[in-house]
């Protein structure tokens, strides 16, 4: 089978990861969470207090960082994220990582290294990859590009639900503030800003269930079961 690449972009909390996991499972493709890669780098830098490190020194650290995705079988399970040999799937979703991930992912040296690694995944097998610049920068010639969005209030509600699972409980108003700030930062940064590819299909998930979103996407991928 010819390699097939599906790129799913969109702002934080729009449901990209959830949809990408289900879609990859349905199609038998490899799922790659590009955001998890930047979160893993952010965690690495926070744990070693490297946030203010000069590019030349940071480059040496980036070359040492090993990020792997380990598949977990089952619908919507996606995979586990490993930093070195350590499973950091839950750790990278903490509020401390969320606070700095936009800043770290906007660093040119970090972006270049992660994009290089992301492109490698697409050389070897069919994949579903989600992020903010997958359809515009990483795979501009992807077979299918989806831009998934949702209202800010709904995205904040989803974020609050996820944070509770981690034992954190920020107020809804604070999460809304954070999302507005992150949207502004991600969409205006100089390097690989959040943007919709010209040929991407826009799907608003505000009032849709996971199944509803998948049903919409399935219209553009005939061999997805509905």
What features would you describe in this structure?
This protein has 9 helices and 8 strands. It has a 5-stranded parallel β-sheet, with helices on both faces. It has a 3-stranded antiparallel β-sheet with strand order 3-4-5, with helices on one face. The longest helix has 17 residues. Helix 2 crosses helix 4 and helix 2 crosses helix 5. The protein has a single domain, classed as 3-Layer(aba) Sandwich (Rossmann fold), CATH 3.40.50.300. It starts with a strand and ends in an 8-residue tail after the last helix.
CATH domain class name: Alpha Beta
- What number of structural domains do the residues give? 1
What is the 3D form?
A: globular
CATH architecture: 3-Layer(aba) Sandwich
The biggest beta sheet is recorded as: 5 strands, parallel
CATH superfamily: P-loop containing nucleotide triphosphate hydrolases
Q: In what order do the strands lie side by side in the largest sheet?
A: 2-6-1-7-8
Give average pLDDT, whole number.
88
Number of helices: 9
Protein topology:
Blueprint: E1 5-9, H1 16-27, E2 30-33, H2 34-47, H3 55-64, E3 67-71, E4 79-83, E5 86-87, H4 95-105, H5 108-124, E6 127-131, H6 134-138, E7 144-149, H7 152-165, H8 172-188, E8 201-204, H9 210-218
Parallel strand pairs: 1-6, 1-7, 2-6, 7-8
Antiparallel strand pairs: 3-4, 4-5
Helix pairs in contact: 2-4, 2-5, 7-8
């Amino acid at each position: 089978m010819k390699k097939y690449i599906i790129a799913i972009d969109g702002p934080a909390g729009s449901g990209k990861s959830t949809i990408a996991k289900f879609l990859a499972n349905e199609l038998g493709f490899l799922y790659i969470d590009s955001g998890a890669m930047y979160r893993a780098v952010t965690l690495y830098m926070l744990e070693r207090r490297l946030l203010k490190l000069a590019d030349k020194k940071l480059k040496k650290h980036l070359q040492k960082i090993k990020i792997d995705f380990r598949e977990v079988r089952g619908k919507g399970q996606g995979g586990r994220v490993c930093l070195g040999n350590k499973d950091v799937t839950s750790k990278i979703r903490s509020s401390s990582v969320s606070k700095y991930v936009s800043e770290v992912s906007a660093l040119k040296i970090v972006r270049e290294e992660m994009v290089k690694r992301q492109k490698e995944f697409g050389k070897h097998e069919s994949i579903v990859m989600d992020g903010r610049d997958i359809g515009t920068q990483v795979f501009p010639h992807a077979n299918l590009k989806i831009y998934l969005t949702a209202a800010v209030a709904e995205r904040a509600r989803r974020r609050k639900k996820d944070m509770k699972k981690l034992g954190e409980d920020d107020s809804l108003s604070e999460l809304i503030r954070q999302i507005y700030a992150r949207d502004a930062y991600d969409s205006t940064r100089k390097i690989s800003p959040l943007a919709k590819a010209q040929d991407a299909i826009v799907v608003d998930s505000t009032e849709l269930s996971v199944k509803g979103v998948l049903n919409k996407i399935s219209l553009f991928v005939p061999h997805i079961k509905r």
